[in-house]
Amino acid sequence: MIAPIPFQPDQMQSDRLELGVCYYPEQWPREKWQDDARRMKELGLSWVRVGEFAWAHMEPRPGDLRWEWLDEAIDVLGRAGLKVILGTPTAAPPKWLVDLYPDILPVDAKGTVRKFGARRHYCFSSRHYRQEAARIVEAMAKRYGTHPFVHAWQIDNEYGDHDTVYSYSKEAERAFRPWLAERYGTIDALNAAWGTNFWSMRYGAFEEIELPNNLVEEPSPTHLVDFIRFSSDQVKSFNSMQADLLRGHAPGRPVTHNFMSNNFDFDHYEVGADIDIASWDVYPMGGLLNGRLSDDNKARYLRTGDPDQTAFYHDLYRAVGRGRVWVMEQQPGPVNWASHNQAPADGMVRLWTWLAYAHGADMVSYFRWRQIHYAQEQFHSALLLPNGEPDQGYQEVAQVIAEIARLPAGARREKAKVALVVDYPSRWASRALPQGCSYDATAIGLDWYAALSRYGIDVDIVGQHCDLDGYAAVFAPDLLIADAVFVERLAQCGAKALFGPRSGSKTPNLQIPTSLPPGPLNALLDMQVVRVESLPEFHIESVLHGNETYPASVWRETIRTSEPVLASFSGEYRAGAPALVGNDKARYLAVVAQGDLLMKVIGDTLDWAGVERQPDLGDLRVSRRGPLHFAFNFGKVSAEVPAAAEAVFHVGERILTPVGVAVWTE
């Protein structure tokens, strides 16, 4: 046996990229554990996550806590030299608990109770569930809080997966009413905020208010967004409860939660305030098929994934973790849960690993160690095949581990020159008031991020609460609810700003500003939006920018302004009307820009802000972490990386083959 490794908090500051794996000892015979641990360590892995779905094994009957199997598993893994991330098991309450307290179960928007038999079958508002979750978490924390092999904790698993943030249960309704009373103080204030004079919707007391589902027509948008805010707060308080218990019994051990991509059902910044490291689960193949790209581009990137979606979420969760981000689940091959489940190209697991490191991740953990041969995820690949043979992902992880040793240690992701604003209340506002089925704020934000990436720009994601000092340019593609304090800080900093359409168009109560949109942005721009229109996909507008005409669609605004007009509409409807206006501090785009128009607007804004950029990189993506420069080829042909003549390549070469990675210093 290898001697125990004592826990030291300073080990959490990774000197170089570390790798790990997700492991489920309860799903495999005990006689496999020791050999699995030995092989993990021999491969070069440092971390192993366990426990997040094991409540029924920890407590098979009420009060019958059985830790011996978990004691043994942690001991086997730790003595092999692996650092354990222990997950709290609250994402999968056992059957006996559901039978004991049926109000644990969530209720969907149609009023149907969602049953036991999978996972995430709980309502965040259930008092019984909060009580039972706190009990099992505290029992775990007391037993393993100072265990020398347990180096970190994961709270729950994938908040929001399977549409489980919003529960329309009686418990949620019970909790929603006092939440509203605290927010508004009086029922008259709520009626004013919700606009209940419209359609005779007035309430006489908070006790009369129901949840915004199964209505004949759409609810008041403020009612809907308040329910989203409430639900987000329920996630935060549930997460905070667990974080507080863990910190009380596990001093010095960092706490994380594994977030998801393409999920804005709750405010990740708020939940992230109570954890030490933000982690997330990276599945680019499903992300591509469920994502924003056209069918032609989905075919083009079928085996690489969207070149920008994964990087965007690395940067988002780096912001959520206040600089610290992990990958808790990295896709190692084809999975089981998407509409189709194609295999990634050979080399993509390696590329995704280095992409994570380039964007600030200190640890990448692969899901999972061995492919399981039964139950729902038996088609989900792993590092090992079901019979224990190494799969393609295993080989690529081995290659990454060999490459890690070639890089200088201690590189840190530095503050970028460019910030992109992602604001959760604004995303919720556009969900409540889309004003057209083609307006998709998530896709628009990713389009802007992708345009910046094609110019070789490193980006920091920021919320309205973030410090703006040091940025040369701030991009806000969909800031519907602009906070006056944020606008003032933006005015005082040195950054130039570009705002997308709909920015400043709604108050926090989802009403039109009395001064007309863009509301608080009038402190930066002398303009008013007097008409908005959402456009069908078959209709294309024309925008004249410089000497070129560009197509545009989805959304158009009519504005009046004293600001210089930088681009104008040139079609048959109101030709000459402003499409882009601005001054020396800020610019406003009155149309959803895509394709060449978006690249033109983003490129001009970077030049205006004095941010050095590359020519359009096409399928190549570059990033920088400290002294290290990275390039990734998502295309089907070789490409030359934009490295200086004196560059020293540590990984890859100047001419980068498809699915290739290059790392160099200059």
Question: Could you characterize what this model shows?
Answer:
With 666 residues, this protein is α/β, with parallel strands linked by helices. 31% of the residues lie in helices and 18% in strands. It is built from 18 helices and 25 strands. The strands form five sheets. A nine-stranded mixed beta sheet has the order 10-9-11-12-19-18-17-14-15. An eight-stranded parallel barrel has the order 1-2-3-4-5-6-7-8, surrounded by four helices. The radius of gyration is 26 Å and the shape is globular. The chain starts with 17 loop residues before the first strand and ends with a strand. 51% of the residues are buried. The N terminus is likely disordered.
- Going by helix content, strand content and strand pairing, the class is alpha/beta
Question: What's the pLDDT, averaged over the residues?
Answer: 96
What does the radius of gyration come to? 26 Å
Q: Which outline best applies?
A: globular
Oligomer: single chain
Strand order in the largest sheet: 10-9-11-12-19-18-17-14-15
Q: State the separation between the terminal residues, measured CA to CA.
A: 45 Å
Give a count of the beta strands, DSSP E runs of length 2 or more.
25
Output the number of helix runs.
Answer: 18
The fraction of residues in strands falls at: 15-25%
Q: Characterize the main sheet.
A: 9 strands, mixed
Uncertain ranges? 1-6
Percent of residues in helices:
25-40%
Features:
8-stranded parallel β-barrel; 9-stranded mixed sheet; 666 residues; alpha/beta; disordered N terminus; globular
